[in-house]
């Protein structure tokens, strides 16, 4: 699985990095980014949770 954050949509709420800090981080620009691709198998559930709960739908996943 790979994850992607659309920076044009991200509002920088930080929910993804709080749900799955091993895959998502907040950059200096205040927006989220993915720093672990492919996503480790141990993190797939939390990445899916972050995707499902992103308030603006900025996270996408490819399996």
Automatic annotation (TrEMBL):
InterPro entries per UniProt: 3Fe4S_ferredoxin, 4Fe4S_Fe-S-bd, 4Fe4S_Fe_S_CS, Fe-S_cluster_ET
Membrane-spanning intervals of the chain: none
Keywords: Electron transport, Iron, Iron-sulfur, Metal-binding, Transport
Domain 4Fe-4S ferredoxin-type as annotated: residue spans: 1-29
GO MF, one example: iron-sulfur cluster binding
Pfam families with a match to the protein in the record: Fer4_13 (PF13370)
Keyword Electron transport carried by entry: yes
Function: Ferredoxins are iron-sulfur proteins that transfer electrons in a wide variety of metabolic reactions.
Protein name listed in UniProt: Ferredoxin
Organism: Desulfitobacterium metallireducens DSM 15288
